[in-house]
Design a protein that fits this description.
The complex is a heterodimer.
Chain A (H helix, E strand, L loop, with lengths): L22 H6 L1 H25 L7
Chain B lengths: L2 E7 L1 E3 L8 H16 L3 E4 L17 H11 L10 E4 L12 E4 L4 E5 L2 E5 L3 E2 L1 H26 L4 E3 L12 E8 L4 H14 L1 H4 L3 E4 L5 E5 L7 E6 L6 E5 L11 E6 L8 H19 L13 H10 L7 E2 L5 E2 L1 H12 L6 H19 L9 H15 L14 H10 L6 H7 L9 H6 L10 H10 L4 E4 L3 E4 L8 E5 L9 H8 L1
Parallel strand pairs in B: 3-18, 13-14
Antiparallel strand pairs in B: 1-7, 1-8, 1-10, 2-9, 3-5, 4-20, 5-6, 6-7, 10-15, 11-12, 16-17, 18-19, 19-20
Helix pairs in contact in B: 1-3, 3-6, 4-6, 4-7, 4-8, 6-8, 6-9, 8-9, 10-11, 14-15
Classes of the chains: A mainly alpha, B alpha+beta.
């Protein structure tokens, strides 16, 4: 893990983030994840904004 | 061996018509679920519900009163257990399209504008996982039937937010000894509910109820918790809900209704959510005063602080004036709970709890196979990094729609990214696919769900309706009334009359 926010503050885009690809995390499962990531990336190129905009739910319990 | 159960409200979408009416879709989904179930289903019995009773109030025991009544009833036969008579009424009380009681003991119905699966009563965290995933399988089967019968598609999302301000719940229910004073229960449980997010969180892109700030947080529900304690579930939601509707013998039991939790697609998250909370409740029932040292000074704020503290280092102020991190509080709870394990299932929960806390504390991403928010964050981080450039050295910014879309699609039943991650062998499973499939039509055998599900499966022709604590029989009798079989003991899996009817 790289740098972590120790104050529990929301992460801003320019702030240090824990999810900067960590060498330890990227090793074991890289191969298995790469194919899935490529598929996710491909599908999101097309319709992400439209998808997010149209996902509207009523409040529940 | 505490009785518990999970209720899940699913998000519902017609991908071809985003403005389709969700209430109508949910109702059609329940109809499709009944069609999927075939004969083995019944209506819901609304007879015994009492959702306005508050845990902090008082009410005379219904049980005491009705037993006086029973001794006068000529039709009552002690050998058949508690049975009362009810006049036949019109069918107004249960439009069949809003409810399905199922052979696995669950209720599938329309709650507000969402389809909801209320799982059967289980004992233990492992069975909670099995029957929770069975609910997802049933919902998927109903959606497939819906597509056949309605000629349009429906997608279901096992999450809790839409990013536009709406939240819908995943509630846990725990049977608790009525002798525990509710204020003590709430006070001693709150530190656990605030800090367990570190392993129960499903992860969320967006901060604030409307996702108005870019960022990522652990929990789907954290930003919707606005009070320490209260009766509400749809607004000003409390950390500890006071609804006092035990669905059981009121003089002996409470049903603690926990509304703070996230919907989980990871088995380990569900296992720990139910297993750890059940053990903490055992410590509370035993009046373990060590719990008092963990009381938080500002629990409502702390829910959000913990959810945003991805580095797991934020120090929360305790009522004592000291401070502790969420992980430290969880480790303290783990040590206290060691004394309350009573069976192998509890021991498995303790071992998993310890292991997950260790992994979270040493290398966050080593918990990615078990903790849902960590897995989601890892995948989002890799997705962001793929798009790193001169202008965006850290990759996609958090307000990029692709990240929000991936977060929503993560939870889609059937083909969502969490399911795909599991299919790729990257998620640890607690329950086998075979056990889950069997649990779609078979009830747990060690609670009253066995009776509810069993009679619905074996003799649906005799069942007028069923509820959590009642089975209403409609059969040829001299008195000509419906017979209400009372199941006030959630842990009682046998009943002379129902067993006789099932065997016959």
């Amino acid at each position: 893990m790289a740098q972590l926010n120790a104050q529990g503050q929301p992460y801003e885009d320019d702030a240090p983030e824990p999810e900067a690809p960590a060498p330890a995390a990227a090793t074991a499962s890289t191969d298995a994840l790469d194919d899935l990531l490529a598929e996710i990336d491909g599908s999101l190129q097309v319709n992400a904004e439209q998808f997010v905009r149209s996902f509207v739910q009523k409040g529940g319990q | 061996m505490r009785v518990a159960g999970i209720e899940t409200e699913y998000g519902i979408v017609d991908p071809d018509e985003p403005r389709a009416n969700p209430i109508l879709m949910s109702s059609r989904l329940v109809t499709a679920c009944r069609a999927w179930a075939g004969e083995a289903t019944s209506r819901w019995d609304y007879g015994g519900e009492d959702p306005l009773q508050d845990q902090r109030g008082f009410r005379r025991s219904r049980l005491g009163a009705s037993e006086d009544l029973l001794t006068d009833a000529a039709e009552f036969d002690a050998a058949e257990g508690r049975v009362t008579l009810r006049r036949r009424r019109g069918s107004w009380e249960d439009p069949a399209h809003l409810n399905a009681v199922l052979a696995n003991g669950a209720r599938f119905y329309v709650d507000h504008a969402h389809p909801e699966y209320s799982g059967p009563e289980v004992t233990g965290a492992h069975d909670a996982v099995v029957w929770d995933r069975a609910g997802d399988a049933i919902a998927l089967a109903a959606a497939a039937r819906y597509a056949e019968d309605e000629g349009s598609r429906v997608e279901l999302y096992k999450n809790n937010v839409d990013g536009k301000g709406a939240s819908y719940g995943t509630h846990e229910n725990f049977l608790v000894d009525r002798a525990v004073a509710f204020d003590d229960l709430a006070r001693r449980l709150t530190p656990h509910l605030v800090t367990r997010q570190v392993y129960t969180g499903a992860g969320r892109v967006g901060l604030g109820q409307f996702g108005e700030e870019p960022g990522f947080q652990m929990s789907q529900r954290a930003d919707y918790m606005e009070a320490e304690i209260g009766l509400e579930t749809t607004l000003r939601r409390p950390i500890v809900n006071t609804r006092d509707e035990p669905h059981a013998a009121r003089d002996r039991y409470r049903r603690l209704h926990v509304i703070i939790g996230d919907a989980n697609l990871f088995d380990v998250a569900t296992l720990l959510k139910i297993g750890t909370t059940s053990l903490v409740l055992s410590a509370i029932e035993a009046d373990d005063e060590r719990l008092d040292a963990l009381e938080l000074a500002t629990p409502v704020e702390d829910v959000q602080t913990v959810s945003r503290d991805l580095g797991l280092r934020a120090r929360l102020e305790l009522a004592s004036g000291e401070t502790a991190t969420a992980l430290e509080i969880q480790r303290a709870l783990l040590e206290i709970c060691r004394a309350y394990a009573t069976d192998a299932g509890d021991a498995a929960v303790l071992a998993r709890w310890e292991g997950v806390l260790e992994r979270l504390g040493s290398d966050l991403f080593s918990a990615a196979r078990e903790v849902e928010w960590v897995a989601k964050l890892q995948l989002l981080g890799r997705l962001r990094a793929r798009h790193a450039s001169e202008t965006h050295p850290s990759g996609l910014p958090w307000d990029d729609a692709r990240l929000a879309a991936m977060d929503l699609q993560w939870s889609r039943l059937g083909d969502g990214w969490a399911t795909r991650l599991a299919d790729a062998g990257q998620v640890e499973r607690i329950a086998s696919d075979e056990d889950v499939a069997a649990a779609t039509t078979r009830a747990p055998q060690d609670t009253r769900a066995r009776l509810r599900g069993g009679i619905v499966a074996a003799r649906p022709d005799l069942v007028d309706a069923a509820g959590w604590s009642t089975v209403v029989l409609d059969r040829e009798t001299d008195h000509g009334h419906l017979e209400v079989v009372h199941l006030d003991e959630p842990g009682a899996a046998r009943h002379p009359l129902l067993d006789a009817l099932m065997d016959g």
